[in-house]
Amino acid sequence: MTRPAQRSGGSRASADRLARLLNLVPYLLARPGIAVAEAAADLGVTERQLREDLELLWVCGLPGYGPGDLIDMAFDGDRVTITYDAGIDRPLRLTPDEALALVVALRMLVETPGIANRDAVERALAKIESAAGEHAGAPVAVRLPGDGDRVEALRGAVGRRRALRITYYTAARDETTERTVDPIRVSMVSGHAYLEAWCRRAESVRMFRADRIDDLVELDEPAAPPPQAQLHDLSAGIFSPSADLPLVTLRVGRSARWITEYYPCERVEPDPGAGAGSGREWLVSLRVTDLDWARRFVLGLGPEVTVVSPPELAEEVRDQAAAALDAYAEPAGGTTSR
């Protein structure tokens, strides 16, 4: 009975700390050499909490996260001075457009089925609406992404506990299959609606993205997930890397480093072959669902990414890139333009 309250309290504490950290750097910039005790009193926290915040700030900064990218500070006894602010030189203030965008996003989040910590979202929404004033009441149209009718049909099947026959497109394998599933729940993750169901074909729980379900028929039989059906932990997103999935290592240039923020990576480090201090290329290792997906992923990233391992992925990428170039070559017979 106490776990939801503990989780909600943890979310509130994290939100409060984030707000404090965003304002801490400009506060210290305006008061170079301020005593830690004085700063703690001004901010309404203990000295211990403030020192923990300062330790966290030391590892925050700009993408690259190397020397010259991270927030830096100097201590003189019990006094602290910010020596590099990483661009956080003003207290956090929202423009009317930014406040309205947050209000719309939070209103949508509140209406999302299966969202965790709804009370924390509602509290954040109330605070931003209060701060935004009249701008929060501007007329806007809010619509969840995806096929609304399809999502409602899936929710209905879950509520009625009915099995479904679906025609589903699997993007990772670029194939369409027909399956009979026992629906368990519908969730919104990263802006997409998913049906979580026991797949009788795979004999395990699967996640089906609603906009990739080409057709569905509600069957005249009850949904009956077996006792061993376990729901996925969606707190970190849909994809959960595991040791049994293929491990891919890529050499990544500066403009493609964003993938380390977007995809879960097992290892990110400077490429030792790029030369000391160059900092231009990273070696990035991540798990993938299968090598076909990895091939399309790498090709889509362009010349800023090359495959280090596994060798078969490098060969597939090289062959498909060569085939694409051949498609642009002049036909063997040649043509004459007019």
How would you describe this structure to a colleague?
The chain has 338 residues and is an alpha+beta fold. It has four domains: 3-84, Orthogonal Bundle (Arc Repressor Mutant, subunit A); 102-137, no CATH class; 148-222, SH3 type barrels; 247-327, no CATH class. The protein contains nine helices and twelve strands. A five-stranded antiparallel sheet has the order 7-6-5-4-8. A four-stranded antiparallel sheet has the order 10-11-9-12. The radius of gyration is 26 Å and the shape is globular. It starts with a helix and ends in an 11-residue tail after the last helix. Residues 16-129 form the PafC HTH domain. Residues 151-216 form the WYL domain. It comes from Plantactinospora sonchi.
Which CATH class of the largest domain applies here?
Mainly Alpha
The description of the largest β-sheet is: 5 strands, antiparallel
Cα-based radius of gyration, to the nearest Å = 26 Å
Classify the secondary structure makeup into a structural class.
Answer: alpha+beta
> The CATH topology of the largest domain is what?
Arc Repressor Mutant, subunit A
The share of residues in extended strands comes to: 15-25%
CATH superfamily of the largest domain: Winged helix-like DNA-binding domain superfamily/Winged helix DNA-binding domain
**Total number of domains:** 4
Q: Order of strands across the biggest sheet?
A: 7-6-5-4-8
Number of strands: 12
Q: What's the architecture of the largest domain, going by CATH? A: Orthogonal Bundle
What's the overall average pLDDT, rounded? Answer: 79
Tell me the helix content. 25-40%
Q: Unreliable segments (pLDDT under 50, ≥5 consecutive)?
A: 1-8
Individual helix count = 9
Overall 3D form: globular
What separation lies between the terminal Cα atoms?
A: 79 Å
Order of helices and strands: HEHHEEHHHEEEEEEHEEHEH
